[in-house]
Amino acid sequence: MMEPGEDSGAGGGRTAYLILRAAEWVGMRVPRPLGLRLGELFMRLQRRRSPEQRAVVGANMAQVLGHPEHSPLVEAAVEECYRLYARYWYETFALRSMPPDEVNRRFTIDGREHIDRAMDRGRGIICALPHMGNWDAAGHWLALNGYRMTAVAEELRPPEVFELFLRHRRALGMGILPLTRDRKVGESLVRSLAQNEVITLVADRDLTGRGVRVEMFGGPRLLPAGPAYLSLMTGSPLSVATVFTTDEGWHCVINPPLEVEPTGDTRRDVTEMTEQIAAQFERFIASAPTDWHMFQPGWEALPPEREPAPGPEAGPGAESAAASRR
Amino acid sequence: MRIALACPYRWEATGGVQTHVRQLAAHLRDRGHRTLVLAPGREPSADPGVRIVGRSVKVSFNRSVAQICPDPRSWARVRRELRAFRPDVVHVHEPISPSTSMFAALSAPGPVVATFHAGSERKLAVRMATPVLRLVWSRLDVMIGVSEAAAEFGTGPFRSRARIVPNGVDVDMFHDAPPAELPPGRRLLFVNRLDPRKGFSVAVEAFAVLGRELPELWFIVAGDGPERGAVARISPELRERVLMLGAVPHDDLPPYHAAADVFVGPARGGESFGIVLVEAMAAGLPIVASNIEGWREVVRDGVEGSLVPPGDPVALASAVRRVVEDRGLARRLGEAGRARSERYRWETVTGEIEAAYRDAIAMRAKLSA
Fold first, then answer.
1. Domain check: are B82 and B155 in the same one?
2. What is the CATH number of the domain that holds B123?
3. Neighbour-count burial of A25, counting CB atoms closer than 10 A to its CB (0-12 exposed, 13-18 middle, 19+ buried)
């Protein structure tokens, strides 16, 4: 996910940290109407300050909507993207000071039974999500309602920014595993599944260039192999899920677990499963394109087709894929 | 003396038994002994004093994962390594798991000392396996339990033969560490995995009461685990005074102890030994902990701390409040704790284990005379 100030060049790390501290303060202490306005104001500045980033959002929306980049529809969508992203930032911190009853009132969910059924079976469940709506709200809701959940966080720089996020998400009751280069994350995830936890992996973007090549919205895109690989190795079910922003809160949808008959050829199975994930992501994103907080390029800049490499030797695909490194 | 140490669990994983074996080997070497550690693992060890004798596999048991090596090829490897090393004594840890330690006990060429670490929750399993374990037990010259609870659990019908040598703790590490920079106020410290056995949610419920009564009290939590979500269920204002540090590497813990006022140990049971309690005592912290088997051997009620019924947040809260409000009491408990922690000093413990080795060798000599 993008952090505000991420692109502010040298010394930007410190700026990013100060901006986040300010956002944390606003989120936790400023009343909702004013807090949302402040967030939108900041994002409007951000949009002006970084035309490059705005162009990326434009290109992503053009791909999703199937309209030219500078068409009025895409322009309007980009504005809405920034507005909803501002809301994400305000609300993620506002969650920290929100009474539990209010969280439960603002958060609605479809498909909770898929999680409950998995819990009864005792092997945990892996939820693969796109960067939509507010995934922190989902994590907090799970913790609040007695589910045990763990998410993986990519390591951010500078360290104090990373620390702030760890502290924030832990205070929401979420378990957070820092994605380090060693194999610890994969092992920890396997252990968490053995202890019947819910693992949430944000999996709509590959950071390493070694993910699985899938087609989304008519173009090739890389998705991390980690979620599928983790599910195949542990036998734990994998559901695709998302969180939509609603007028007063969030609506979470959890799809039934994927059904893939393993052939024994891990590479093939991982590809098959990741293609199914991509197809379900597509539907979620298509039903609320501007609620997709995607501020990095994903479709262009793909190298020419080569062997996708989901196996254990291929290493992690992205923030979620450390599991493949056991 | 040439001493072979056998560990049944994957060497690269973190765990109480691995830590114990690693530290014991280092202390034995400091005293001029030759040591060789045998353990399962996933890759060869860079340490020349450690031989990886088989590939560990994960075995799900009791909602937790043990990484052991029940492979007969590994047994052959253990026998070869022991023949080549020619130990004066073989010291096996937790030999009732079907892994390296059991193999070492069964194929040791000479005297065998065994240490039992685990607590009490699987007594039934041990009883059922007794016919097999008899063979293992019959090879042990000296049996050690790290506590009464561990001896009771691990030695089956041979309880009367076992002696108690506690876990060693690096107490100096917890003396005079620079305090961590934390928000101002009084601080309650919890260090452990956040799972139901360790009682984290009980501590959170206690803090939900305490935090309201004592507005300057903070709850510092070092550890991670499935019960982490408990913090989401208290009111947001109180949640802001809970600092969740996540899993903290052991070496980084002392500054948090140095910054804390009270240590809380709300475990629900199934503990064989409270290393976390000894570490907190070494740091001079007053303890408020559950009155459970294994732990009451370490902390005495009213002397080093206050023991409360397990799983009772109200009792826990009122015991913590008493210690926080009465600084004189806190100081007395802390000083008594620091004195008691000396009992667990590695140097002392190593001396007692050496004595066990000498006894084992003497017993064998008598047998063959």
1. yes
2. 3.40.50.2000
3. exposed
